[in-house]
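re: that chain from earlier
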Amino acid sequence: MNEDQGPDDHFDRLSDELVTLIFNKVLDAKSLCRCSVVSKRFASLIPQTDNVSLIVPSSNNSKPKRGTFFIVFLKYLVGKFITKPLQFLYQTVVPKLSVNSDEDETYQFTTEVLRNFINIKRLSIQLPCHGDELGSKGTDYFLRWKAEFGRELESCVVLGATSFHRSSSTPSSHKKHKQLHEPMSATDELKTRVVWMISSLIAASTRHWLLKQIIADIPMNPQSVMISDSSKQGRLIMGEEQFKELRRSMNPTAPVERTMVPAVRVKLWHVPVLELPASGRVMNGATLIVIRPAERTMKMESEDEGLGDCFEGEEEEEDLREAVREMLKEKKPYKIEMDSL
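^ sequence. v structure.
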């Protein structure tokens, strides 16, 4: 070390390529924005990162002062992103549930941040929860969904239960229940499943609409996109070819329209008490719902074989995978047809 010049900065010895690789491992946009103020070199390299994750703060957070695009991100205010159709559904099916919408503000601030990253290949956006998600009102509902989109919905898988807990009794105590279908004609039971299915579809289509607004303004071509929520309830997934299909379908001179769910055909498996031997857990009112566009019905039987992998990457991946496998053992799923939403 030269005492006149001060200590060496070993980070300066790294090439730009290696520094960019390190930033790609950071993922979190908040951490990246902090790094950007360290030096001019960092500020020039961070926009080139191709692995970007935006964790959207709650609207209750205080508003920071305006500044560079990284500081603008800290100002990012998010609205509730459930659409008006879902508000109507909830007010009809679940009385007294109110939903407010600030999609425009969400879109504007998200776009303002993302347009400063010029090489996005993997994009992850985590939206906040607002207390009106299913199961957030003190109930024991368990709900997970995953939707794949291209230009429109390709598939949506919903796994739900009225409770999901560790077994407190011996396996044999549930055996006789596991073989029986719970009657689905009961009003409360049917209403619960309808809410799970419709709310998941509309939440997914709303996220798809948000993505369309973003890419209408930003010339990015990611290889993968995931839009999730902080409660880990649902994920919208899109691959490279699906993203290209979506971009090709958009008219750059026309306003972005809300994403409609096409006419679909639904397969529903239901087990009143589902025991998971490997995990030692039990799902009460276990329900697996597979939703696909009506035009893809011919492929439904063969595609069911891969449903066990649809929740890959979830915190409870193995438990969910086991639950799906056990549900698929049911011989006769319920079948439902539904017009577009």
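The beta strands are 51-55, 122-127, 142-149, 153-161, 163-166, 224-229, 234-239, 264-276, 281-293, 334-338.
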